[in-house]
Structures are given as C-alpha cells and as structure tokens.
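Second attempt. The first submission of Transcriptional regulator, TetR family had a stray character pasted in from the spreadsheet, which I only caught after the job came back as garbage. Lesson logged: always re-copy from the clean sequence file. Corrected sequence (194 aa) follows.
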Amino acid sequence: MGEKGRRTRQAICQSACQLFAEKGFKDVTMKDICERTHLSRGGLYRHYGSTREIFIEIVDSLMREQADDFGGKMEQGVPAGDILDEVLKRYESEMADAGSSLSVALYEFFSSPEYSGDDHSMYEQYRQSAEMWERFLEYGIKRGEFLPVDTEAVIDLILFSYQGVRMYSKLMPVDPRIPKRILSQIRLILTGKE
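This time the job returned cleanly.
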C-alpha cells in the first residue's frame, strides 16, 4: 500500500472513531462513514469491508500506541515518575472528555456474541493493557521510583476506574474532580506523593 492509501486509511479511522464515540458501535454504518469521510462506497470498500474491520483497526491502533508509548520510554530510561505523570495527565483529560469516549462502542462490540470469542475480545484487550502496566510498574519499582505495591491490585484499580469513568461519562455528567481524585490516589499509592 502506498503513502496515499495509508493516509486515506488513517483519515477513515479518524472519522470512524469520532462516529463510534458519538453513536456507539451498533449504530454506525458504512454509509455514515462514507458521508463523514466524503468517500464513495467504492472508495471506502477499497480499504475496508465492514465497520467491524475499521473498529478492530482503531482498537488495535490505540493499543499499539499505548504500548509503544510505555515501551519506548522505558527503553530510553525515562524516569518512571515522568512516564506516570504523562499517562495520568492523558487519562485525566480522556476521563473528562465524554465526547471522545469509545466505552459504549467497546461494550457494544465486545458484548455481541458474534465478536466475543475472537482474537479481538475484550478480555484480550484487557490482558494486553494489564501486561503493559505490569511491565511499567515493575520498571518503576526496580528503579526505586515506585513503592513495592501489589501490582495486580494497582492495575485493576487503574484499568477499571479509567474505563468506569469513561463509561459513566457517556451516561451522565461526571464532576471533573472525580478523575483528579482517582488519579491522585493512584499516584499516592505508587509514589507516596500526590
């Protein structure tokens, strides 16, 4: 695939991601994506055969970005505290931004019986996130920057509170102090400082 094709696929995914955040997974059609991207049906189908393919690419891309972000910085020896601050700042912004949340779309996609057992299951996404966080927490503990904590418990706290707030933000107004309080406690648990 050439550079133009890659740019087109990226534009399709960006537009589709906005649609999935707005409407969930079930209510987005290929026609919606054509209208949002100003592509003909043939132009869109040249790149993707279904909304499922597009959604999987979006989720996989988000997972890769997060893994690359952690892994690359750890390989460079960036202090764990700096990485943590950057990630928690991004999480706070995302938790407060209901408009860009894919939580409902993720729930709809992964709770559908036709998608629940494949390689892109919600459990697989959770497992990848948990493994990434485990490597990062161990990195911080080995460097003496994080307190020796129960990593599984901290990972559960991070992942489930993050997704929980993202889901609730789609259903009701969430006070912006809630993400701040949650993330402040995570920082306190890991570093002993707020």
